[in-house]
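COMPLEX REQUEST
Ligand: adenosine-5'-diphosphate
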Amino acid sequence: MPEMLFNGIETLKGVGPAKAEKYQKFGIKSVYELLCHFPKNYLDFHCNVTVRNAMINEYNCLKLKIKSKSKPQAVRDRLVVCKAVATDGTDDITIVMFNNVYAFQYLRTDYEYYMYGKVTENLFGKEINSPVYIHSGEKNFIQPIYKLTQGLTVNMVRADMKQALSVMKNEPFETLSESIMEKYSLCPLMWSFENIHFPDSSVSAEKARRRLAFDELLKLQLGMLIMKNRARVRTGFKMDSSIKISDFIKGLPFELTADQKKASLEIVNDLCRDTPMNRLLQGDVGSGKTAVAAIACCFSARNGIQSALMAPTEILAVQHFRTLSGFLEPFGIKVCLLTGSLKNKEKTILHEKISNGEYDVVVGTHAIIQKDVKYKSLGLVITDEQHRFGVAQRAALAEKGNTPHKLVMSATPIPRTLALIIYGDLDISVIAQLPKGRKPVKTYAVTGKMRHRAFNFVRERLAEGRQAYVVCPMIEESESELFAVKSYAENAMKCDLAGYKTELLHGKMKPAEKDRVMQDFRDGKTDVLICTTVVEVGVDVPNAAVIVIENAERFGLSQIHQLRGRVGRGQFESSCILITDNTSEECLQRMKIMSSKTDGFEISEEDLKMRGPGDFFGNAQHGLPPMKIADLSCSNEIMNMARKCAEEILTDDPILEESCHSFLKMDVIRLFDKDIIG
Ligand code: ADP
Ligand code: MG
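STATUS: Structure written out below.
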């Protein structure tokens, strides 16, 4: 085990307490963690232009010899300008640096440098502004660029990084066996650390990145799979596969889709095993996950086992309660709704009835699995729309009671490979097709100039008795954005929507107030709901037939798809109008995708391709540990490799006990919350 590598960063020469504190801002405490501060980009100092033919107002890399330096000039309060004249033989150019006396004094006349910076031209000739540079004797023409913080310059980080690399070189180590490296064509670890920071070519940098990204995904997968294996304990709720529910399925008001049938079968099979189910049910908005949940509840109830269904909000809980009791009560299965707004007395009565088993299915928010709710035999826990839940929370739930079966329902379609990564600790069922006869939501993208026409269209629908959503982006949830949303709403009420009942809904409102506004909208008391993305989560108002999305460029494709899923839920033809004044190529492309595609999985693939995973998930966390290098959108190839390799490693060494895996294990523990991995 390398030791120096895990020493505090102050053990590096030139790193004192002040600098260590700056590194702390990035979570860097040890030398090893510094090495994992990977470059966010590189600067290529290979230069092929001369001062004479440098592109004006563009960034250029020039090879320059300093001819003369002027004294730094204090121009005004706190602004010091340093200037030097340099040449490459074709022409002179003035180097201009601001507030950087320290770096300036180290520039030496008669030395040659490669300088990279924006070149401008004025009356007196050409200038290169605040260039970054290397000495012409420097071997590395490709220099790393790091995320920096006040007082930490790129040169400091580069110098510290070089020292850290030499520490590592003194204690070489490798986490993967020769055979694994060969099998997946991966470069050695030491080489990769050197070449991610100081690559000799862009090809080397890419190879290094591939290896390090593989390692990170591998550790993630190892953690996930260890958790998955740990969850394979005995359940106290093994059900009887001979129990029949075909009468229930026949009694549903519709014929199940093929995917619904498949998912139901997978779930019922899980319920009949010795080990608890840990399954994700993934399906687009409106794909009919609730019916599948109802089947699971019915099967459990007939096995004498209680189920709990948890929704993220009270509104959704009420909605689920209505649907589930509609399906189940006719078959004598008792469903109750347990929410925070119940009076104490009602609550006590409900608790009593849950604990003596009078209710088979309990619907509510998170409160329903808290300590004070006692069940007679809670054997199935279903959570809806929970991709916002972290892995750690899922693991915590797994530790509860005598290991009930767990089903997580998510309406966020994500590409399959990504699902494998994020839900690596779960089995997955997918409902990919929508029930027959669903009318797709017609989607139009327009510019702000067409806003009035768009609202004409909205008013026509309102006149027909429909309702509408207008969504404004409030991504930061900041006061100023809140102000913008509020004034937008006020304005709309006065102009485009004058005479209609309009209400505002946003995330900063109190839960009770939100619920009231939502309830009024659902009851048809409000015509138009002007809202932020708080409506994103599965609210079902079948009479709403049009949704207008302002500043559509600020939403991700998947997010727009979720929003669009708020309409088209009833028998009415529905529309989605995207308003944006952004005319960038990317935005046009995205609007085109939204107007032409309706399949959530296809859209999510596109979304992931166009934006990184960070953006892909929007505000919603994916609940994974933060990644340093492995972009979740990085190639499916690496993800699949990492998954496969993790499975192979754990087959031989299920909890990473062998000494050859000690380093991997340490990093897996580092990546996850400590208690997850034993
Ligand atoms: P999800 O929770 O996946 O968004 P829901 O379960 O709320 O979807 O179902 C959406 C609507 O589709 C509900 O009104 C439901 O009754 C209906 N539905 C579900 N399955 C089918 C089916 N197989 N055929 C027709 N309609 C269905
Ligand atoms: Mg739903």
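REMARKS: Residues 614-622 have pLDDT under 50 and may be disordered. The chain has 23 helices and 21 strands.
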